[in-house]
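Tokens for Phenylalanine--tRNA ligase beta subunit. Go.
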Amino acid sequence: MPVITLHYEDLEKLTGTDKETIIKRVPMIGADIERVEDEYVDIEFFPDRPDLYSVEGAARAMRGFLDLETGLPEYEIKPYKVSISVSEDILKIRPFLGCAVVRGVKFTSSSIKSLMDLQEDLHWGLGRNRKKVSIGVHDLKNVKPPFRYMAVDPGFEFVPLDYTEKMSMTEILEKHPKGARFSHLVSGFEKYPIILDADDNVLSFPPIINGTLTSVTEETTDLFIDVTGLGEAVYTALNIVVTALAERGGEIEFVRVISPGGEELVLPDLEPEERLLTTGEVKSLIGMELPVEEIVKQLERMRFGACALDKETVEVRVPAYRADILHNYDLVEDIAKGYGYENIKVKIPETYTAGKSHPISLMRAPVNEIMVGLGYYEVMPFTLTSEKVNFENMCREKTDDVTYVLHPISEDQTMLRTTVLPNLLEILALNQHRELPQKIFEFGEVVSNETTGQHVAAVSIHPQANFTEVYEVVDAFMREMMLSYEVKESKDPAFLEGRRADVYVNGKKLGVFGELQPEVISKFSLGYAVVGFELDLNDLIGKNI
């Protein structure tokens, strides 16, 4: 989960109260305080609340929660002066574009850092490491509208951010740190995305790097924001950024986005979504009956617009920056937060039962103890994945035992995983900024032939990772689990030939271990040797081992 640094000077100014009150109450809106320092506090917010990834967003929420300013925040948007045209050839590369202008922002070094941190946290939280969403923030004074979003040849040259000399787009992908890190996002395309002004100056090479001409400094007052991506999460990210800047005093201005066919889209769209919520829905989840007036009060504390239509129904207006409100259940959760979990009455169940540990829990305890004892950290990735991650990136053939999501909301989550290892490699890819070695494991669910199973998998990454290391880990794990086993030569294409082995127990194949082959390491954009293993423990659950 993202950890956000909130400086007291900014926080108190934007919230209108003292830091002690904020620190005391902020955990109740869904956050954990990581550390309290003399000048700032680090707070870990849940990943479903990207609108809180900045001091501006956190202050807006706290003003409501502390009854300093309740109800739906309203932002005036001025008529457009800037337009941007979208070319036909970009639609096959990165088709979604959202833009806005924010004027009159007064920046300090800390507020610039807050904006840049918000940008990067949204890249992670909404953007899947810039794949689905990437954000560019530009100083308007050095560029001239109208702008153009188009595709150009890889040989096109400009001066990228933090550099002083021109580089071709190909060179940027090879030599610039950001280019090398995110080059996989545009690999395979004959042309690359770019945003140009009327004089052919470069604003951005999305989703890789901005041009140095539009760098944001303390002298910047007027901003152009571009958000590109693969889906409608682009518009949510745009709304979060512009409303955060508006909280700092900026004036939002529409931008006219002109499609290849001439249709126009005026953004940002900050119109709230309207929902109807009944007192019965609230009671069914919270467990106590709240009058409609109390429901309205608590929704307004959580910065929703709300009014009672009758004694049982509330009309709710959801802010455009709230990406987490997918169902009325989410509204009820916020009502519970506003009301205070400590104020919800405890009721003793009418029926008493005796519980016992589930067989999976009984298996999980020794597995976790062994792996932690071997120096591995437990992680809990999603069980939803994609064919690309589950099969293609692992150099494995697609199988017929896959369970697909009927209506996936993202190309990254189209199926239930059949194996755990790919998810662990994704986590390594997201944590390349951490020091090595990194050793992680998971005891979790996989689904094959519509049947849920339990696997344990682990990976280790560092320059000296080798077959002997992972063999020793597997041997120690099997001995601690008191399982007699044998190994045979494996043909799993995810591992290096000659440095891979299958594990058998009582003549049945339990799993595989070895050194991941370079192609797999490359497809996950990892830069060091990786070893790992995965074992199917389903047949062992419930047995007295």
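Residues 308 and 314 are 4 Å apart (CA to CA).
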